[in-house]
Specification:
The chain is an alpha/beta fold and 582 residues long. The protein has helices at 5-20, 47-54, 58-68, 92-103, 134-152, 169-180, 182-190, 194-207, 209-224, 227-251, 267-279, 318-331, 347-359, 395-413, 418-439, 450-453, 461-480, 496-506, 508-518, 522-541, 550-573; strands at 31-33, 42-44, 79-81, 85-88, 118-122, 156-160, 283-286, 289-292, 307-310, 337-343, 368-374, 377-378, 446-447. The chain has a 4-stranded antiparallel β-sheet, covered by helices on one side. Helix 14 (395-413) packs across helix 15 (418-439). It binds arginine (ARG).
């Protein structure tokens, strides 16, 4: 709706059809935003390819298109430049009308997706009785942003927290819990000290053969459904999820206990999935284990690489659980699209899984699975993030530190009372961490650097939040001076800074849709950063409250308001709050 391409493209098709015959009207004019304002607002490069196809010079082709191009009411008469580029400069009146229309739309021009899909998003996935580490932080933050973007576009999103709540580790964990006694263990775990609990169990397991033996028989008891063992297992889960919930709350992510479908959830389906794969002729016994060998995957020794359906000891593991989860998501949840937000180190696992899913007929056609892979979080030394003692960095500790430092940033500005200050500090601190994570190309590693994340300038969360705050304080000042902030005032575009700001505002729809398509949140952060920068320039160059005429003032206030709403919406889609003051 807001995208000027919607107006430009049909006009190009018509011109191309008129110039070269209707069979060419479908040719892509390759219209893009211009890299530089001197080349106009948009540039069409399609004459190159069309020239080749028609065996005519691109310049000649471009000139012929321009001869038929009717851009009345949209753009100035187009120009042919260089070897055959067509430069388009939109009319100020057109831009003003588009911006006015945008301001009157709650969705700020972003239409819902043409077809609403059922999308399963598998994210966060911490492990029971283990600390959430920075990898889980990334999965949680990226997954939450993806969920928000997809929901905004009208998709039905089913969140699945694939909790690590099953496996042979639970033998030693339950034994350790028994040794401590329920109350003692509960006290320890409710402090959120999951790592210490896990390490103690592991140390005993490694050092004490009798304990290791007990742990192994405990696994058998767990699998056999022994009531006391199950009760202790459930206690571990309850205590852990209670702790995870506090982290989710602090982070402000949309995950609740209802979204948990842990590994154990699939236990009752595993044998049937194995049978299914055997029936389909996909699973074969190899050295006693039941395996699927999707073609095209080889291990280091050159031998084909398997997905393990059933281990040689008869047990099921991580691979089997994921096969069952995939089938369940397709058949029971009715997923059109399944998104796994997991560390890049598991890429091979998911490639194997998706291939197997295709072979089994669970995936294919319109039903697709995607691994949203992300890189590692590095410490200041550029190496995987660890505590000085070499342990796991506690996620909550990072969040608390960010909030504390944000408090200092906010206090420095001295504008807020005590209570507001701590609320804003939380929004700024948590927002800074989220923004830093989301603004990196997710496939890449990044260095965890709180100073940089909290900086008030540059491509940071606080900078964007502050740009939003500036739009709000301008509105407050206007109100103080008795100027009614008119959201619906007609936008008049005269200055270059206004023009640049409007063009950026109109681009939101395209960015949100491409973020949903590629599942790359950094597209949205880049957009928002550019928007904030365009607003800063506008703010410097175009007096708002002291504009020349009441019409101009109203127009600039409307643009300011629209910018603020766009920043708020965009940050919201990333799971980042936009305070009114800071
Ligand atoms: N719990 C796993 C881990 O911490 C990640 C699970 C990812 N999701 C999945 N369906 N395999 O590494």
């Amino acid at each position: 709706m807001s995208d000027p391409l919607d107006d430009l493209l049909p006009r190009f098709s018509r011109a191309i059809g008129m110039a070269f015959g209707t069979e060419h009207a479908v040719v892509d004019p390759v219209l893009r935003r211009s890299a530089q304002a001197t080349f106009g607002d948009y540039q069409a490069n399609g004459a190159m390819a069309l020239g080749k196809a028609l065996d005519r010079s691109p310049r000649e082709v471009a000139t012929a298109i321009v001869g038929h191009l009717d851009l009345d009411g949209v753009a100035e008469p187009p120009e042919v430049a260089g070897p055959g580029f067509i430069n388009i400069r939109l009319l100020p009146a057109y831009l003003g009308a588009k911006a006015t229309e945008l301001a009157g739309d709650d969705r700020l021009g972003v239409r819902p997706a043409a077809t609403a899909e059922t999308v399963v998003v598998d994210y966060s996935q911490p492990n029971v009785a283990k600390e959430m580490h920075v990898g889980h932080l990334r999965s949680t933050i990226i997954g939450d942003a993806i969920v928000r973007v997809l929901e905004f576009l009208g998709h039905r999103v089913i969140r699945q927290n694939h909790l690590g709540d099953w496996g042979t580790n639970f033998g030693m964990l339950i034994e350790h819990l028994g040794d401590l006694g329920e109350d003692e263990a509960a006290a320890e775990l409710s402090l959120g000290d999951l790592e210490a609990f896990y390490q103690q169990a592991k140390a005993k397991f490694d050092a004490d053969p009798a304990f290791a033996e007990r742990a192994r028989s405990r696994v058998v008891a767990l699998q056999g459904g022994d009531p006391t063992t199950l009760a202790h297992w459930q206690l571990l889960i309850d205590l852990s999820t209670r702790y995870f919930s506090t982290v989710y709350e602090l982070l402000g992510v949309r995950l609740t206990d209802d979204d948990i479908a842990g590994e154990s959830f699939y236990n009752p389906m595993l044998a049937d999935v194995a049978d299914d794969l055997v029936d389909k002729g996909l699973a074969v016994v190899d050295e006693g284990a039941l395996c699927v060998f999707p073609p095209g995957f080889a291990g280091r020794d050159g031998k084909p690489f398997p997905l393990m359906v059933r281990k040689s000891d008869g047990g099921f593991g991580y691979d089997a659980t994921d096969l069952a989860a995939l089938r369940y998501r397709v058949s029971a949840l009715g997923a059109d699209r399944i998104i796994y937000v997991v560390d890049a180190r598991q890429s091979q696992h998911f490639a194997l899984l998706f291939k197997a899913g295709e072979m089994a007929g669970w995936l294919g056609d319109a039903r697709r699975a995607e691994h949203v892979a992300f890189g590692a979080v590095l410490g200041p030394d550029g190496r995987p993030f660890k505590t000085r003692a070499g342990g796991t960095v506690k996620l909550v500790a990072l969040l608390r530190e960010a909030i504390e430092r944000a408090e200092a940033v906010v206090a420095d500005r001295g504008e807020l009372d005590e209570a507001t200050r701590s609320e804003v500090a939380r929004q700024v601190g948590v927002g800074a961490i989220k923004y830093a994570d989301l603004s990196n190309d997710r496939a890449k590693d990044y260095v965890f650097d709180l100073d940089r994340m909290l900086a008030m300038d540059g491509n940071t969360g606080p900078y964007l939040q502050y740009a939003h705050v500036r739009t709000r304080s301008l509105a407050r000042r206007a109100a103080e001076q008795g100027v009614t902030p008119a959201t619906s005032a007609p936008v008049v575009v005269t200055e270059p800074a206004e023009r640049a700001l409007v063009l950026q505002l109109l681009a939101l729809e395209v960015v949100v849709h491409s973020t949903a398509e590629t599942l790359q949140p950094h597209r949205l952060t880049t957009y928002l950063f550019e928007l904030a920068s365009a607003f800063t320039t506008f703010f410097d160059q175009c007096p708002v409250l002291r504009a020349d005429t009441p019409e101009q003032r109203a127009s600039r206030l409307a643009l300011t308001d629209l910018t603020g709403r766009t920043l708020r919406l965009g940050l919201g889609l990333l799971g980042i709050e936009a305070p009114e003051r800071m």
